[in-house]
Specification:
The structure is a single chain. The protein has 212 residues and is mostly helical. Helices cover 84% and strands 0% of the residues. Helix 2 crosses helix 4. It is found in: Cell membrane. Belongs to the binding-protein-dependent transport system permease family. It holds the Pfam family BPD_transp_1. This is Amino acid ABC transporter permease. InterPro entries: AA_ABC_transptr_permease_3TM, ArtM/GltK/GlnP/TcyL/YhdX-like, MetI-like, MetI-like_sf.
């Protein structure tokens, strides 16, 4: 009976992968920009960065998704549900990326920052050439965890009508009345993503240790 729905479930798994592949880079960009604001010498930027993180981290992901899905059309912006969910995931997990990047930057020896300033590097070059490359070593594992959480968070698509893995397995359950089989399949799909990400993270960490 499962074989008759394999195409739909595989399609849902593919959509989950696409959501993750689109949302995580967006979260990285958002998180890095907000982190730069939070360490900026400009006080209004620091305040704006902190406000963003506090608001987003204290809001449920579903709330952000619903605000985008219903708020964007009211503002005259019409985009597919898929991209609304990508934006919601990117905005939400961008706050967590921000704190990860900020923690990684804090792990960099302050002496190197002072040396970079002493030779006249502007703030932008200090961040891009000194802080971020070295901070990345401390961020590999936390960023891998965030990537896994993005994949798991994409299951929210089942609540807003995006045909991802959870929605397809729920549809399979509604047609066959086999909840254990249906959601065991979904669990296996997310487990595959989890294991794949964990393997890549371990590989990157080994390479970073060698380079160090």
């Amino acid at each position: 009976m499962l074989s008759g729905h394999a195409g739909e479930i595989l399609g849902g798994f593919t959509t989950t992968l696409l959501l993750t592949a689109c949302a995580f880079p967006l979260a990285l960009v958002v998180g890095c920009l907000v982190a730069i604001c939070r360490i900026s010498p400009v006080r209004p930027l620091r305040a704006a960065g902190r406000l963003y993180v506090d608001l987003v981290r204290n809001s449920p992901l579903l709330l952000i998704a619903v605000l985008l899905i219903f708020g964007l059309p009211d503002a005259g912006v019409l985009i597919p549900l898929f991209w609304c969910l990508v934006l919601a995931l990117g905005i939400y997990f961008g706050a967590y990326v921000c704190e990860t990047v900020r923690s990684g930057i804090r792990a960099v020896d302050r002496g190197q920052v002072e040396a970079a300033r002493a030779i006249g590097l502007p703030f932008r070059r200090v961040v891009l050439d000194v802080l971020l490359p070295q901070a990345f070593r401390a961020m590999v594992q936390p960023l891998g965890t965030i990537l896994i959480n993005v994949a798991l968070g994409s299951a929210l698509g089942a609540a807003v009508g995006v045909d991802e893995l959870t929605l397809e397995t729920r549809s399979f359950n509604l047609e066959t009345a086999e909840p254990i089989l249906a959601f065991a399949v979904a669990a296996c799909g997310y487990l595959v993503i989890n294991l794949a990400v964990s393997g890549v993270v371990r590989l990157i960490e080994r390479k970073v240790r060698v380079l160090r």
